[in-house]
Amino acid sequence: MKSVASQLQVGLSGLLISVFLILFAVNDHVTFALANALQWQEISRKAEYIRSILLHSLKQGHIPESPCLDAQGSGFYCQWEWQQEGVRQVYLSPSLEEMAIALPDMAGDGSLELKLHHPKGGELRVVTFVHTLPKGKLLLAVAQSDAVQKNPLRKWRFYHLFLTFFIILIFIALVYWYVQLQFDVFGRLQREGKQWQIRHGVRMLPNAPEEVKPLLQILEQQRAMEERSLHRLRRTLGQIGHTLKIPITVLFHLAEAPEMQQLPKLRAVLTEQTHFLESVLERHLRRASLAGPNPNGEFFRLEQEMATLVRALDMLYYDKGLEISVRVAKNLCCPGNREDFLELFGNLADNACKWAKSRIIISAGNETGFWLTLEDDGPGVAEEQLAILRQWRGKRFDENRPGQGLGLVIAHDIVAFYEGELTLARSTELGGFMVSIRLPHKEECLLPGD
């Protein structure tokens, strides 16, 4: 479904186009009607002027010089007749080029407006006058070609249409800009919401429009209820975990009891199952600790934490003399909860130190979302063993190494919680084991105090 902003932009743009096209049609019709009326008015005014000249001369008893002097190509035409004692005299303007206008018979005196066919094609708008005098009868016709009006009006229509669409485009751009400006409030709410998430424990609704505030209040109430329920659940799981640790400790002591030395097989099974029970309990308690509010919007600087982690690993594995190279950009921000990612990096780095011969490389960046790789020069893992590890069941391939085989499983749980991807492969640079982390996070690094 399209966003509300897009629907508003498309709907208002369509409404604007419809309104402007209706206005264009109305304006075009009114313009042509007005031009038509003005043309008839101009022809009538010129005909009245010529009639007055002719009547004045004829009443004085002499035939005047023809006042119809419109030149060829002027678009105006004039023709008058004087009928006296059966004699018919016809006078044509030069613009008619000896082609008289075929006028209908008029029984009495008066005027008439006609539309006649032009001898050369097109249409003529004609105003005729008939006036009877004591000595004869005067018939006057003044005409104008419709091309005189239509040619300028066609140009006007083209420019009018162009101007209308230009204005439509401007208004559509303004509509898109204004709607986007009004809906930017939701982007601001999103940014304020991220800052809101960073302020742990602070209940503050972002400044929002009146229509949105009730929804935000409902969401905040729902979030508060979920946090209370999660808090009770995590507290209950913590209590169960602490309660189970006592019998697990008793089982460990029972396995080490002198009486169990005489039953080595039973002692081995009891020790193995107790370790398994302890690892499962630890894993599920870790999952419960992750089941809190979504940590998106939290950041911490990775460079400082990596320096502390490398110092701790150097002290822990000083006897191996490992060279740990950190390729992390200055001020690189890691998106997420600091404690979660320190446990993630700690598990992966500790696993690398156990297997590495002399070198470990840690690289990180945020070109297309946050990513981190950790490589060692140890023996690596065969492809069939990688397939088993990717099942994330806590499998150990070397029982002589310390640990319970849960490091990668816990790391996978943390990365999955942040909707990321954890990849296991062989290092192309060092030849050993490589773990890659990628988080689909492209938001701005927001740190309190920045």
Counted beta strands: 12
> Separation of termini?
37 Å
Pick out the low-confidence regions: 292-297, 396-404, 446-450
Give the strand order of the largest sheet, numbering strands 1, 2, ... along the chain: 2-1-5-4-3
Order of helices and strands: HEEEEEHHHEHEEHEEHHEE
Q: What quaternary form is this?
A: single chain
Could you estimate the helical fraction of the residues in percent? 40-55%
Largest beta-sheet details: 5 strands, antiparallel
Give a structural overview.
This protein is α+β, with helices and mostly antiparallel strands and 450 residues long. It has eight helices and twelve strands. It has helices at 4-59, 147-198, 213-255, 264-290, 302-316, 338-355, 383-389, 407-417; strands spanning 76-84, 87-92, 110-117, 123-133, 136-145, 299-301, 323-328, 333-335, 359-365, 371-376, 421-426, 433-438. The strands form three sheets. Strands 2-1-5-4-3 form a five-stranded antiparallel beta sheet. Strands 7-9-10-12-11 form a five-stranded mixed beta sheet. α1 (4-59) packs antiparallel against α2 (147-198) and α4 (264-290) packs parallel to α8. The protein is rod-shaped. It starts with a helix and ends in a 12-residue tail after the last strand.
Which key features would you list for this structure?
450 residues; alpha+beta; five-stranded antiparallel sheet; five-stranded mixed sheet; 8 helices; 12 strands
